[in-house]
């Protein structure tokens, strides 16, 4: 891809592309898919914790965009719309899993056993492998309540501005900021052993 | 709520430079005298850095192909829905049959009035010279009228055959006449 093509592509905003798609230009839809598929996968994967499920949900997100293209109005950004769809699908999946879990045997198993915490107390000098650390952080994110998880993912992983998060989730700006702070505090408490294994004080 | 808890609410704003000057000064003053809060704030900064540094996943190589296949299937589904009325003939067929049955029942229920006309006619032929004999031609005409327009057919019938009771009266009259004849 030449630099000119890249620049040309960047000039074409998402809103122009969706407008073209609404007029029947399917290639515009393909461009939007290429732009958002990885971002959405990262968002949904961090939400649901399963790669295959996440890809299916992202596929479903684009299918809904395809089917419901005429529902998009340019009062909000396209990214707001597509992330709203993806987030709702992810939350629905988690609710579905929760209902299924009620009837499963694992209900009687202590969930904490699923959480593999390296025994840093025995060997504090040992450096935690980068990939293990990422896995531990991912598990901690999955354990967050949904209302904290979604704002943390949108803010700290996806890099959205507070205002857009407020639009995506349809919650007030103040609530977004409050939840981001509380989500971060929860994570730092849960992951204290990871970043400060010798810490003994209790906040 | 402890003093430390109150300042925890300001951590994210402080990290992102969104606090008012007086809030920032107040927090910094607290941090200078509270090592646990200093450590908590440092952990928060580290968490934010770690989250930004999480590995970025990419979709599988056949992601777009599978999506296009699903879209094609979607389009097929729409075309199937368009042809649904042609393929799903059973519903209109059963509905038609039901209508025919109802109409048939309706007509059948109306038939006794023509049958009673025929019966009345035959009785009047046998036992009552009072009412004029109906020729078979007239009966046929009456039946034809029934088939064309029930209301007209009824209008065309002799008065004494319109109601069941009239038939009864005719019988009674007929019996009387027979008795008289005897």
Radius of gyration of chain B: 48 Å
Backbone shape of chain A: globular
Structural class of chain B: mainly alpha
In DSSP terms (H or I, runs of 4 or more residues), the helix count of chain A works out at: 10
* Order of H and E elements of chain B: HHHHHHHHHH
The count of strands of chain B amounts to 0
Beta-strand content estimate of chain B: under 5%
Classify the secondary structure makeup of chain A into a structural class: mainly alpha
Helix content of chain A: 55-70%
Low-confidence segments of chain A = 109-126, 199-203
**Approximate shape of chain B:** elongated
SSE series of chain A = HHHHHHHHHH
Mean of pLDDT of chain A: 84
Give the oligomeric state of the chains in this entry, treating copies of one chain as homo and distinct chains as hetero. Answer: heterodimer
Helix residue percentage of chain B? over 70%
Query: Which two protein chains have the largest interface (Cβ within 8 Å of the partner's Cβ), and how many residues from each?
Result: A-B, 40 and 34 residues
Strand content of chain A: under 5%
Amino-to-carboxy terminus distance of chain A: 53 Å
Mean pLDDT of chain B: 70
In short:
By secondary structure, chain A is mostly helical. Chain A has 10 helices and no strands. In chain A, helix 3 (26-48) packs across helix 5 (78-102), helix 3 (26-48) crosses helix 7 and helix 7 (146-157) crosses helix 9 (173-190).
Can you describe what's shown?
The complex is a heterodimer of chains A (203) and B (182). Chain A is mainly α and 203 residues long. Helices cover 68% and strands 0% of the residues of chain A. Chain A is built from ten helices and no strands. The longest helix of chain A has 25 residues, at 78-102. The N and C termini of chain A lie far apart (53 Å). Chain B contains ten helices and no strands. Chain B has helices at 3-8, 11-15, 21-33, 35-52, 63-82, 84-87, 90-127, 136-148, 150-156, 164-181. The longest helix of chain B has 38 residues, at 90-127. The N and C termini of chain B lie far apart (121 Å).
